[in-house]
Amino acid sequence: MDRVSKVYGSPVPFTALRDASLTIDAGDTVAVVGPSGSGKTTLLGILGGLERPSSGAVQILGNDLAALPDAQVAGIRAHRIGFVFQRFHLIEHLTVLENVATGLLYHGVGGRARRSSAQAALERVGLHRRASERVSHLSGGERQRVAIARAIIGHPNLILADEPTGNLDSVNGGMVMSLLTGLADADTAVVVVTHDPTVATRLGRTITVRDGGIVDNTGESA
Ligand SMILES: Nc1ncnc2c1ncn2[C@@H]1O[C@H](COP(=O)(O)OP(=O)(O)OP(=O)(O)O)[C@@H](O)[C@H]1O
Ligand SMILES: [Mg+2]
């Protein structure tokens, strides 16, 4: 991300992100911290191609998101990026397996391949035995693990999690953080927005945002 700003339009223009520059490498685990309203979710949304920057450049694996049409940004999002949210965003009336399989809907693979990939992703989060249950039967911690399986089913290079432990107790939060940090590898980076200092200390480096600006970014490789 190079000198990215985001200005929301109406009724009065508001700068939610100002001149933000950062680099995230494969293998990195990054915490994004800062007060409520400081721009953390905005930063994550721009990193993930959910929102377009008002100015500046966002490059993912050599693709400049700001220069690409929406359809191509959506393709990069589907293939390269996995999202995890505080409130899980699962589909209640579907089974665990069906929820995970939706993570491949835009990959052009058939139903059978989606289901076998979903089963493999569920094994990675330890929920393969629950595949045929409805998500409405699951606890919060289990739901978040389903959401993580959905995020990783397509082997993304960047996993973005916005307050993933915000609705969990400390035991389940710890389990979710272990899973998330374990996903970083030679091809994959993990970025976690959090209010919780103990969550932040579990990640390799911390980016601090205040009033829309990055005020601290210690540990970024030169
Ligand atoms: N779509 C939008 N239109 C207008 N303003 C917005 C929009 N989205 C966010 N904002 C504003 O931008 C600022 C940053 O919001 P953002 O959601 O990024 O904060 P945050 O750091 O994630 O906060 P929290 O910790 O409460 O989740 C806030 O003042 C917010 O009201
Ligand atoms: Mg937020």
Automatic annotation (TrEMBL):
InterPro entries, A to Z: AAA+_ATPase, ABC_transporter-like_ATP-bd, ABC_transporter-like_CS, ABC_transpr_LolD-like, MacB-like_ATP-bd, P-loop_NTPase
One Pfam family cited in the UniProt record for this chain: ABC_tran
Keyword ATP-binding: yes
Residue span(s) of domain ABC transporter: 2-222
MF annotations from Gene Ontology: ATP binding
Signal peptide (UniProt feature, chain positions): none
Highest taxon in the source lineage: Bacteria
Keywords on record: ATP-binding, Nucleotide-binding, Transport
Entry-linked PANTHER family: ABC TRANSPORTER ABCH.1, IMPORT ATP-BINDING PROTEIN
Name of this protein: ABC transporter ATP-binding protein
Species of provenance: Microbacterium rhizosphaerae
